[in-house]
Amino acid sequence: MNRIAVLTSGGDAPGMNACIRAVVRGGIYHGLEVIGVRRGYSGLVAGDVFSLSSHSVSNSIQRGGTMLKSARSPEFLTAEGRKKAYEQLIEIGAQALIVIGGNGTFQGALHFFEEHQFPVIGVPGTIDNDLSGTDYTIGYDTAVNTALEAIDKIRDTADSHERIFLIEVMGRDSGYIALQSGLAGGAEMIMVPEIMLSTSEIIQTLKQRKTGSKSSSIIIVAEGEQKNTAARLADQIRHQIDFEFDIRVTTLGHIQRGGSPSAQDRLLGSRLGLGALEGLLMGKKNVMVGLVNHQLTYTPLKEAIEQKKPIHRDLLRMIEILRV
Ligand code: F6P
């Protein structure tokens, strides 16, 4: 093997640049040329590629976003689009492909491998932390800290005005960001897609807090598959609540995807980037590189996507115990 390609796809995540840097510099160390693909699978189908040198990735480890740009490619969802991508890889002489992204990225990679048997290895890069086969995904730690900073700020004003705040965080169908930012931010309740509280349970808890003279509350709401989850929930509470309480909603949104990566995400990105490259050299393909209990692991892509990562119920229990 003497030439490989690398791309980032799907939602960007802080630490992706650290990962690209590790792939490039690992490649140089092992005598490989690394070709960067711009705009994910869209760029691959279009042949938008360039050679990456050590210099191309300097001064990037501390930067959020992805220097390769990212996109969600409708073309790669089709067999025809994937065939074009394969032809581009053959034309540039790449013998393997590293894809950094999340669930959708790996779905595409899996189809691509099954159709063309082209060696591909996935690196988990998503703030959602929803992939099996790794304890954490690149970008998750930074996103949790960004959400936490916002929660702390909202708590100040919630407390001053004695209000209930519903704060919606990202994570698609995974409650990881909600759970960890909520716990760290001392939230009174956390709503995750995996375990939903009913509106009457929420109102009951708010009532208890009010009689116990707790005048403000923070409820963290994971966005879930459907958008505006927190706004809809706030409406339901307003309709059913039979005591005076001022309710506000804040949706944190894409702020959670940006910013300089945390030390954890820089380290994870670097470790997994090098792990992906060295995995390819060991002959691994159609797998995702991950870190489990601090050890590098390689999990079949299918498993990484299909096995639902369990939410820690003991953490949800902690919320109830600690909010009293
Ligand atoms: O997968 C990462 C993520 O940020 C999810 O948490 C969120 O639901 C989605 O991407 C938003 O996607 P987009 O940036 O395309 O709106």
From TrEMBL:
Enzyme class: transferase
Residues the record lists as binding ATP: 11, 72-73, 102-105
Keyword match Metal-binding: yes
Stretches assigned to the Phosphofructokinase domain: 3-278
Cross-referenced Gene3D superfamilies: 3.40.50.450, Phosphofructokinase domain
Residues that coordinate or bind ADP: 21-25, 155, 186-188, 214-216
Primary location: cytoplasm
Catalytic activity line of the entry: beta-D-fructose 6-phosphate + ATP = beta-D-fructose 1,6-bisphosphate + ADP + H(+)
EC numbers: 2.7.1.11
Keywords noted in UniProt: Allosteric enzyme, ATP-binding, Cytoplasm, Glycolysis, Kinase, Magnesium, Metal-binding, Nucleotide-binding, Transferase
Reported cofactor(s): Mg(2+)
Active-site residue numbers: 128 (proton acceptor)
HAMAP family in the cross-refs: Phosphofructokinase_I_B1
Biological role stated in the UniProt entry: Catalyzes the phosphorylation of D-fructose 6-phosphate to fructose 1,6-bisphosphate by ATP, the first committing step of glycolysis.
PANTHER family attached to this UniProt entry: ATP-DEPENDENT 6-PHOSPHOFRUCTOKINASE, PHOSPHOFRUCTOKINASE
Quaternary structure (record): Homotetramer.
Name listed for the protein in its UniProt record: ATP-dependent 6-phosphofructokinase
Lineage: Bacteria, Pseudomonadati, Bacteroidota, Cytophagia, Cytophagales
